[in-house]
Amino acid sequence: AEDMVRRLGATALARGDAEWRRRAASGGQMLALGKWGVRPDTALTAGAASDLLTATIARATWAKARKGGGR
User: Fold this and answer.
1) What is the pTM of this model?
2) How far from the centroid of its chain's Cα atoms is residue 53's Cα?
3) What is the Cα–Cα distance from 32 to 9, expressed in whole angstroms?
4) 25, 2 in Cβ contact below 8 A?
């Protein structure tokens, strides 16, 4: 994954200490979390929301693939 980020020239987005990660989560991020059934009970940073979305989508994708629905 890191090699792909480098090839795409998106290293600034992928950095753990990137400035955007410290901003408040966007409305779009919060909407996406809600669509995935995630309702945080505290305010999130953009980085935390991004990480939570990634983990939630990966978990759902993995569960679907294990059930044979990933084809």
Assistant:
1) 0.75
2) 3
3) 25
4) no
Nearest by Cα to 27 from 49, 7, 8:
49
Summarised one tens digit per residue, pLDDT across range 19-63 is 999 999 999 999 999 999 999 999 999 999 999 999 999 999 999
Residues 51, 71 contacting (CB under 8 angstroms): no
CA distance linking residue 45 with residue 17, whole number of Å: 12
What burial letters (b/e) apply to 37-68, b meaning 16+ CB within 10 Å? eeeeeeebebbbbbebbeebeeeeeeeeeeee
Read off the tokens for 59.
């978990």
How many CB atoms lie under 10 A from the CB of residue 25? 20
